[in-house]
DNA sequence: AACTTTTCTGTAAACGATTGCAGACATGAA
DNA sequence: TTCATGTCTGCAATCGTTTACAGAAAAGTT
């Protein structure tokens, strides 16, 4: 560590004094304004480099109303899809000079509201959000929209029209693919463990599931569909009910992989052979689903693609916002394709 | 969404004008200053509530030099330990009114430098960092220390004295426990797949490994120790070398679970029975290590505990910094205990 | 009534960077 | 020499909040 005195140049006016220039000139150099003498520019740059000056983002943000920061709200970091998406977003934005403030709602609507407000307080340039599975009312994002901060939803998104960009996986098709796969294998008694229908992704997956069944003229048994938070414990409860008395299902479709894994483990415990006596399909391609024995068929959502599209869209919004003071257009959602990955559980 | 005109009160002076008060009074209300008339306070609070005013953090941060924001640098979000630690930190700080800026270095020293600089530019109140496995020089954190921003390292930390809080798992004991366990089971030919020795955690785990071997009077075979980034591909390469010709090892100890899993899968492929012919121990208790067949013995690091201690320490530093302008004391590292989890692979 | 004390509120100057405007200087043209 | 043009630099106001200080009003004391 060098001596304090020498390096403690952390405001533009201190630089100015040392170089016998005005703060204005320093600022112009730092912002690549054209009308600065090349010699002056070089002198300033050299000095800035030497003393390791770093622009105070708060001061410049206050003046310019730009923070070069994007806010991100996710339900849980630990969910595989989000981990991947966040990583992609972070890398993408960092490459363009933006940084990220990340908040986790823990699937609590209250915390989500709080986070939205905090992000507005920080005057981030844009907000990306994957909502709680219980968020039905999105008005806590209004304050952002009203102040021309673009909002972009992904994964769990508003179902009513809302003036924000929307990016989501093709959940309807995912549900349809999973169910069709089981039906094509000859399954007739398919149970479905769904998340709560307050959330678009579970609505869509469920709709895909029903579409496939009706197409194959299989009646939908209401008592074989479960709606609850997709935890391992809930999955075990559902299994307990399903295998309390015959007829037993010959396939279980789960709306996420945590559930599928819990189902598989329960089946192993009570001695049901998978896939011979019971086939299982999950959703999301969590790394665990590929590693367990037997490995579980699942739906790949391509989180890296989702992340890339988000980055592209957010950069577009940021540029657009910079050029025109127009409000965000309410365009069609962008839908990222999904794919079935067949494994040993079917 | 309500009409713009009515709600667009986003500065203290607009509030002041509307209420026929001075900005100073509004500010005092917002900051719970004692000397404000109760009636005035209630009137202001009600209005603030009604129009949904939110303090501009940049302006207040500029004035007070406090941002209520903590910066966090991690190598990769996707590493299980970090996912857990981040979650704990985020929840803990949020409960105390702080928010987090998270950056990911991707194990690149260059990006890490960049992130440290950016966090300083944002004038965060404190920085928490788990470094790259290649970071040997920590001088890019100097700028923070010099400006009285407390720094707290965890997991991958400086080995030379550095004026920052240090919190780490007991890696020496972890390495020792893992190796001792194998030795007690009678293993005589233990190979060890380590991370690069530029990083404290791998140095310590390695030291623990050697200590256990020498205690059991087993010579350390240099050609059975590998030092490289702990990826699945590298693990397979190591296995390829180890099983090219006899004598084969009777146990493999891996410095993380990704490697242990790759080792197990390779062993399955070439028909080596685990644990009969080969025992495997991993490190970190990644969820996958418990779910694979056979499940893998590993070292639990208690990431949630690490996170809790970090939160407690960081809050302590923030308070302390607020009270006295003293520099951070260079205290002893805090060491979080680890535990061996025995599973089917041994 | 004259005074101190207490309680509240306003004034104005910061914090550090940016930027419209104008001034200084040099260069070229007539 | 005089004027016009172009290039560079500085002045000063601004962003929104905080806070030392002072002033005003109310309450209490003698």
Task: Please tell me about this protein's structure.
- Chain A folds into 3 domains: 10-55, Orthogonal Bundle (434 Repressor (Amino-terminal Domain)); 68-169 and 304-336, 3-Layer(aba) Sandwich (Rossmann fold); 171-300, Rossmann fold (3-Layer(aba) Sandwich), CATH 3.40.50.2300.
- Chain A has 14 helices and 12 strands.
- Chain A has helices spanning 4-7, 12-19, 23-30, 38-51, 57-64, 80-95, 109-121, 142-146, 171-184, 200-215, 232-242, 257-269, 287-291, 303-323; strands at 69-74, 99-104, 126-129, 151-154, 165-169, 190-194, 225-227, 251-254, 279-281, 298-300, 334-336, 339-341.
- Chain A has a 6-stranded parallel β-sheet. A 4-stranded parallel β-sheet of chain A has the order 7-6-8-9, sandwiched between helices. The first copy, chain A, has a two-stranded antiparallel ribbon with strand order 10-12.
- In chain A, strand 3, helix 8 and strand 4 form a beta-alpha-beta unit.
- Chain A is elongated and about 90 Å long.
- The relative contact order of chain A is 0.11.
- Residues 1-7 of chain A have low confidence and may be disordered.
- Chains A and B meet through helix 5, helix 6, strand 2, helix 7 and helix 8 of A and helix 5, helix 6, strand 2, helix 7 and helix 8 of B.
- Chain A binds a DNA duplex (30 and 30 nucleotides) through helix 3 and helix 5.
- Chains A, B: It comes from Niastella caeni.
- Chains A, B: This is LacI family transcriptional regulator.
